[in-house]
Amino acid sequence: MSAADGRSRLLVLRALGLGDLLTGIPALRALRRHFPGHELVLAAPGRLAPAAAATGCVDRLLATGATGRRVPGELRWDGPAPVLAVDLHGCGEESLRPLRALRPRRLIGYAATEAGGAGWRADEHERDRWCRLLRSHGIPADATDLLIRRPAARSPAPGAVVLHPGADAGARRWPADRFAAVARALRRTGRPVVVTAGAGEAGLAQEVAALAGLPPGSVVGGTADVPFETLAALVAGASAVVAGDTGLSHLATALGTASVTLFGPVSPRLWGPPADARHRILWRPDRPEDDRPGDAHGEAPDPRLLRIGPEDVLSELRALPSLCDGRR
After folding, report:
1. Same domain for 124 and 203?
2. Same domain flag for 273 and 236
3. CA angle 8, 9, 10 (to 5 degrees)
4. Does residue 153 form part of some domain?
5. Is 189 found in the same domain as 89?
6. How far is the CA of 299 from the CAs of 48, 164, 262, 268, in angstroms?
7. How far apart are CA 181 and CA 7, in angstroms?
């Protein structure tokens, strides 16, 4: 049951993306505090190792091989079984199965059906969901405890507004020409603009930069993901971040950087930042009371996202303290 240094091991499954990791910080931090003498191992994609380390909660990352948002079929765990395994990945037997196969002394997760304790709620915010699960098992958890330490490295573009037009699904991808319109307006005020791109998004980012008339070097990334250390320094040093509901918007939240997040097809009530003047949200549902999510993995931009125009984004940017009073 022990790590090489003699500590008992705790395994957490959250084999998803950067945004998922960052929204899981309050639950991971709760486990870290409740089990201070344990080695906390996170089962997640290997590319998230630097981000996992930056949370200050994770001792080691166990790389998973499943693609996309699929549940890993098995976990390559070495040595004695973990004393505790926690499913922060899904709800039910599919995500519990690879943990159960390791025969942990104790297993925490949302079962498909439960005789008692916490039950899965589809309309619950992601941070609240996992903290409630832990509390139901006697582990105190605070869903607002989500900030990470700002990186020591200097930003490659201090004071810039960072625009991130990419997303892993077309449903959450605001049109390139609208990002370009925002960039042009910011440039007219003398504000520097940087466009970020994940792996395979170089064409999209370059299109935004070209339409906006941005100078050479304004695009960061694209051929491959921007190294996390560079991305964190860029976001931490930015005046603001403008993005859809993606990992970059969650990174801005975790670093306390001002942001404008464009939501669609999923409501900010389920994935949005906490109430804070630094974080502005744009959400245009069919009816004010309608928070039902659309297809988060669809190919075409969600209609609610398309109801947001460049002037809506610029208005929210102007309301940010970091842009309206001269501070970073």
Report:
1. no
2. yes
3. 130
4. no
5. no
6. 25, 18, 17, 20
7. 54
Q: How far is the C-alpha of 230 from the C-alpha of 76, rounded, in Å?
A: 30
- State whether 24 and 86 are in the same domain: yes
pLDDT tens string, the chain, 328 residues long: the values are: 456 677 899 999 999 999 999 999 999 999 999 999 999 999 999 999 999 999 999 999 999 987 878 899 999 999 999 999 999 999 989 999 999 999 999 999 998 444 445 789 989 999 999 999 999 999 999 999 999 999 999 999 999 999 999 999 999 999 999 999 999 999 999 999 999 999 999 999 999 999 999 999 999 999 899 999 999 999 999 999 999 999 999 999 999 999 999 999 999 999 999 999 999 999 999 877 677 778 888 899 999 999 999 999 999 999 998 786 544 4
What pTM did the predictor assign?
0.94
* Together in a domain, 127 and 57: yes
Q: Which token pair is 177?
A: 């020409």
85: region left, alpha or beta (phi > 0 left; psi from -120 to 50 alpha) = beta
How many domains are there within the chain? 2
287 and 187 part of one domain: yes
C-alpha–C-alpha distance, residues 305 and 183, integer Å: 18
Of the residues 136, 170, 204, the one at which a domain ends: 136
Whole-angstrom distance, CA of residue 14 vs CA of residue 143: 17
Rounded to whole angstroms, the Cα distance separating 186 from 177 reads 14
